[in-house]
Write a structure and sequence with these properties.
This protein is of the alpha+beta class. Helices cover 48% and strands 25% of the residues. A hairpin with a 5-residue loop joins strand 1 (36-49) and strand 2 (55-64).
Length: 138
């Protein structure tokens, strides 16, 4: 009976995480395929320190929409320095929420980060499915 609850817990936690990460990635991919591409810049790069003493780099990108609205958004992208030009893609229905530097002319590192998260959370979700399946076999 305990294995059932462990499996359900894994399914609930990691299944939800995997769902949201997959939804976020598909939204970004939709923006890459059908979004508007404009030139942007990495306007700020700053660091923060994690609880283990690790340094994490954050990147803030800025761009101007075709309608003339200036927008800044944060998206981590490896190997970008402050002032670097990037291609920003966004969907005109909501540029502030859909903007991404992922893709050609930008950076591919957000894609790899998303895929890594989906892979790990998906693996634990499958482990939860296995535990639930094994609990009914007993």
């Amino acid at each position: 009976m305990t294995i059932l609850w462990v499996g359900l817990g894994l399914l609930a936690a990691f299944g939800t995480l995997c769902f949201f990460l997959t939804r976020q990635l598909t939204g970004r991919l939709r923006t890459i395929v059908s979004g508007i591409a404009v030139e942007g810049r990495c306007v700020r790069r700053y660091s923060s320190e994690g609880s283990e003493g690790n340094t994490y780099w954050h990147h803030v990108h800025g761009f101007t929409t075709l309608e003339g609205q200036y927008i800044e958004f944060e998206e981590d992208a490896l190997l970008l320095a402050q002032g670097d030009a990037v291609t920003v893609r966004y969907r005109p229905d909501n540029p502030a929420r859909t903007a991404t530097v992922m893709g050609r002319g930008g950076s591919w590192s957000p894609l790899f980060g998303s895929l890594f998260g989906i892979l790990i959370s998906g693996g634990f979700t499958l482990l939860g499915v296995l535990f639930v399946f094994l609990s009914f076999d007993q």
